[in-house]
UniProtKB/TrEMBL annotation:
Occurrences of domain Peptidoglycan binding (ranges): 98-181
Regions that span the bilayer: none
SUPFAM superfamilies in alphabetical order: Lysozyme-like
Name assigned to this protein: Uncharacterized protein
Domain TtsA-like Glycoside hydrolase family: 12-94
């Protein structure tokens, strides 16, 4: 399990997995360095050549855009494992995607509203999502965390399958997307 203070470890593992500069014409994201697309780098104010994107700048982008802003740091205070999964998926698909999956899974795991009430699926982790997660974990314990993680992984795998089926060029990336995901 990853502790709240291990965000730096998550970042280091991510950068190791993503590697250096890539400009694969099959990749709809265009040029990347450390896994940061040119669009994300430009949105963050980086204007230099992607080949020169500093490692520490990439880490700062990931930390801000994919950890703090989507509130995964708050999730980590309740479940470092779930937060690590949300972070990993959010980097690949945007943070609102796994956030919405978390909300959906929590809604269907609340035993028909007996444990806590359903929440709106808005892809934003706020007080309601955190409260539902906290109650779910208190009631279901360690096994609940494992089941929730499995659900999130199922959703992630299904989305990767859909992306590869919808755009044949993505088949080149499917194996890598599935390999090394948080278990």
């Amino acid at each position: 399990m990853t502790s709240v203070t291990d965000v730096e470890q998550l970042l280091d593992e991510l950068l190791r997995r993503e590697g250096g500069y890539v400009d694969d014409p099959r990749d709809a994201g265009g040029e990347t360095h450390w896994g940061i697309t040119i669009g994300v780098a430009r949105a963050d104010g980086y204007s230099g050549p992607m080949r020169d994107l500093p490692r520490e700048r990439a880490k700062a982008i990931y930390r801000k855009r994919y950890w703090t802003r989507p509130n995964f740091d708050a999730v980590a205070r309740l479940s470092p494992t779930i937060a690590a999964e949300l972070f990993d998926t959010g980097v690949n698909m945007g943070p609102s995607v796994p956030s919405a999956w978390l909300q959906r899974w929590l809604n269907v795991l609340n035993r028909g509203g007996r444990d806590y009430r359903d929440m709106a699926i808005d892809g934003a982790i706020g007080p309601m999502t955190l409260s539902c997660l906290q109650t779910f974990l208190q009631i279901r314990g360690d096994l609940g965390e494992v089941v929730l993680l499995r659900g999130l992984n199922c959703s992630q795998g299904h989305r990767y399958l859909e992306l590869a089926e919808a755009r044949p060029a993505n088949e080149a990336f499917l194996f890598g997307w599935m390999n090394g995901r948080v278990d």
